[in-house]
Amino acid sequence: MAILHPTRTHIALLPRYVSRFSCTGSACPDNCCTGWTVTLDKKTFNAYRQSRHPELKGAFETSLRRQRSQASDTFYGRIEMTEGDTACPLMQDGLCGVHKHMDESHLSNTCFTYPRVSASFGGEVQQALQLSCPEAARQALLAPDAFDFIEDKIAIRPDEMRRVDASASLGKELLHEIRIFCLRLMRTEGLALWQRLALLGVFCEQLSKIGKDNSKIAPLIHEAGRLLESGALVDALAGLAPNHQAQAIVFATLWSGKETPGSTPRQRAVIAAVAENLGTDPETGVASIDKLVEAYTRGVQRLPQALESAPHLLEHYILNEMFLHMFPFDASNAYESYLQLISRYGLLRLMLAARCAPDGPLPGADTLVETVQIFCRRFRHDPNFARRANDALRTEGWDTLDNLYGFLRH
Questions:
Q1: By the 8 A CB rule, do 151 and 14 touch?
Q2: What is the rounded CA–CA span in Å between residue 279 and residue 282?
Q3: Is the pTM here over 0.85, yes or no?
Q4: How far apart are alpha carbons 128 and 228 in whole angstroms?
Q5: 375 close to 314: Cβ distance less than 8 angstroms
């Protein structure tokens, strides 16, 4: 059978967990063939239309649909789910029929790539995984060495490589220096995670103020490193008290703004548990502010003890977000990128706190990882989430660093 989508081999920079990842297939508890629209690029769509494979021809004839609105070669068509079902009709015994009867070169770009995200950053190829995949989340969040960086060979379809290259205003060297500093800052030992995030905010705010004056970037990195080593900024933050009420209200607003209940039993179970533990009325779907704040405060105070079973979970989640999305170059400026990161972190913390809120045994590592995975699946793939998150922070003026510190501290 002729190869439909050729790949190229690259030497790429990866977190170590990426090299350990392998799809668990039919054993996956929340597989990517269920609950999502399966998009098809033009080349794959036409190949499926013309296929006469006896095992797949019927499903191809009944399930392929052209994308009529805002179609492109990337999003040319889709696989229509069976009425009342959320699973891809090409699945056979829990596995992909295309992969089984044809080969992986005949998978659509979406199906071949997920959960991998490959990018060229300043000319350097990298790859990380989206944690909406259960096995990717388990590998990334639990292993102590998951974020040791290594180089390895990877196969990529050329059209699926994202690019962030040096521009006329920012050279390759500065691009890498900024990014490396941010990642190293988040791995600084001896500081609580909220302190590292606070210091990251100071750096990103100053970086955004510099604008296009590149001559100030190297001195800024040097000064930020000096302040970090001296402990001066950490000392200044020591007296800050957490604002649990603001944390609960703002991030519960983001939570309630996502109306879909989840499309698989696993997703629905986690979402229902979070809602119930935050005091949501099952009839109205609304929680009073007093119940919400009380439940969140109790949960977030119990969260550190729960995280003893998964001590790297939150740090590795942050590192994966930063590396995967090429922080702080994934928004209009560094501080905007930082605000989006904090929004995601805050909402995830709300969900984790909710899992810890009830009296009784604390959730174990598997439950905490499951919560991260469902958070990523429910919110991280929502193209409108960044806008809603920024609106939620800015409406009450919580987008300034002084106020964000109260958000960050547990």
A1: yes
A2: 9
A3: yes
A4: 28
A5: no
